Every structure is written in structure tokens, then in C-alpha cells.
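To whoever picks this up:

The nightly regression suite flagged General secretion pathway protein G as changed. Nothing in the input moved, so I suspect the structure step. Input below, exactly as stored in the fixture:
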Amino acid sequence: MMRTTHVRQSGVTLIELVVVITLVIVLVATAIENLLPLAGEAERVAVERNRVAVDTALRGEAAQRLLGQGREAVMDLEGHNPVSLLARPPANYLGERANADPAEIPPAHWVWDPARQALIYRVRHSRYFHSEAGEPAHIRFQLAREGSQDLFGLYLRRSHDYHWETDGSELARWLPGGAD
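Regenerated output under the current build:
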């Protein structure tokens, strides 16, 4: 009499493998869709941080000059690159470029245009950014006076209106106790 033994093979079937791969693809796609707005939010925060740093350095230098040397010294500051007032420029600052065309500035970089007296930032995540400045998405700041004729300072002023669709709510979803 012959005995037949059944050997159970262990392993993964092709169908099981396809199901697992499909689930992984769906999970990755969902994660990317949820994380992408965070990139826009991170860019918004970085732009604002750099703008505030340059604006603070500009206001401080103008106040120092006004108190130490008078209003003419502040007026001399009007034609200068405000990024040069920082102890260390942002890592994504490319320097001065006369008559800078935003289309020629790499995304997520700053330049100072001495011809137009403008600090320009080229937006990387334009999906989350809206502006009156047109394409490519960019922000332009210029030096402006504030105060009276005799006692004034300088600040960094937007050359056009813009807004980011990200407002921190995307980031709040990922923080402990954040929005639902």
C-alpha cells in the first residue's frame, strides 16, 4: 500500500502579493496627498521668517542712522540692499541681479534687484500661492518710508498683494491636540 503525503508549502501567493502592493500604493498616495500642503505651509513660514529678518535689520539700521547721523544717513540707506544688513543671508539668497526676471530665478530663491530696488522671492509651491504679480509666482518687496518728514524710518513693503492658501491649519492637523 502506497502512502501519499501532502506537503503544505508556505509562502505568499501571487494574489496576496498583488493585494499587499495595492494597499501600500493606496496608503502612500493618501499620505502624499495629505503631506503636500505641509510643503506649502513650510514655504510660507520660511518666506515670512526671512522677510521679518530683513525688515527687522532694515528698521534697526535706519533707527541707528537716524539717531547717530540724522535723516540724510537714512535716506542714503534707501538705495542699499537690505539683505546685506543681515549677519548671514538666507541660504537660498542668490545675491544681486539687475533687472531680475522672476522666470529666471530658481524656485524657492531670493534675489535683490538693484535696478528696481526690489527684493524678489520666486515661489516653489505655487499651487498654494496667489498673487497679482502674475506668472511665475513670485513676491516682490521694496523699501518704503514710514513716519513724518523729519523723523522717519524704512521698512520692507509688499509691491503687490498676495496670499497663501495654507494658513497653519494643515500643520495643526499633524500636531498633538491639533484640529480634526
